[in-house]
Amino acid sequence: MADDLPVFGLTARDLTIGYGGTAILDRVAVAIPEGKITALVGANGSGKSTLLRTLGRVLDPLGGTVLLDGRDIAAMPRRALARALALLPQAPISPDGLTVRELCSFGRHPHRGVLTRSTPHDEQVVDEAIAAAGLHDLEDRPLDRLSGGQRQRAWIAMALAQETPVLLLDEPTTYLDIAHQLAVLDLLRELNRDRGRTVVMVLHDLNQAAQYADHIIAVADRGIHSTGTPRDLLTPALVKDVFGIDCVIIRHPIDGTPLCLPVSNGNATAALPQP
Fold first, then answer.
1. How far is CA 199 from the centre of its chain?
2. Which of 7, 126, 238, 251 is buried most, with the most CB atoms less than 10 Å from its CB?
3. How far apart are CA 116 and CA 109, in angstroms?
4. What is the pLDDT of residues 28-80, one digit of tens each?
5. What is the 3-class SS of 17-72, one letter each residue?
6. Are strands 22-32 and 10-19 parallel, antiparallel or unpaired?
């Protein structure tokens, strides 16, 4: 399977990851489609966040390699890697009093030398990132005075200011209400469609993954259970295998994407429509 991986883009070969020498995922192969939105899904503790952090070189693998355009990321200088991919961790914490613009400006550090001042180009990129995140009117406001959704958009703006072709996000909708969840996901889809960013994100909500992702990677049983488009991948069998629950899959009445309807009693499926 590893021999079939593409040469370019973000891939992993024979990847074993975990903590303290204990493997969570063992010898997996991963290929992230370029210019697409990929969602990593799986049960709690399945290793999806650990996989994302390894793809972003936050964690070193126990075995195997992560490749970016054919280069082992472990051998890449940190600054060069930071110009190629940005990783937004789960529930990032910002220093007290930091404004939206100050946070966003941190995204320019990989493009500047040590102790080098911001250039007009840096300021232009920051302006564009703030505008893309819909925060122009809030750029001078401290982060601790923003709503949860606004704060998350500020972190995404910082990642945008890195000008990387790849964005990795670990549960970007965590702790947000449904309106803010959709606002963040709409922003990521806009960045993908309009700016060509490759987006990889860990999501817990299968229906959001189906609606927003072009490609899904399902993680289970210390490996990659399956990969594919939401329409091809999301089936009652997969949900049972990966999450251990019964469900019915129907089609969204507006866009036709799969909708997962969990059921507490397997016999109830007979009363529900099938796709």
1. 6
2. 126
3. 9
4. 999 999 999 999 999 999 999 999 999 999 999 999 999 999 999 999 999 99
5. EEECCEEEEEEEEEEECCCCEEEEEECCCCCHHHHHHHHCCCCCCCEEEEEECCEE
6. antiparallel
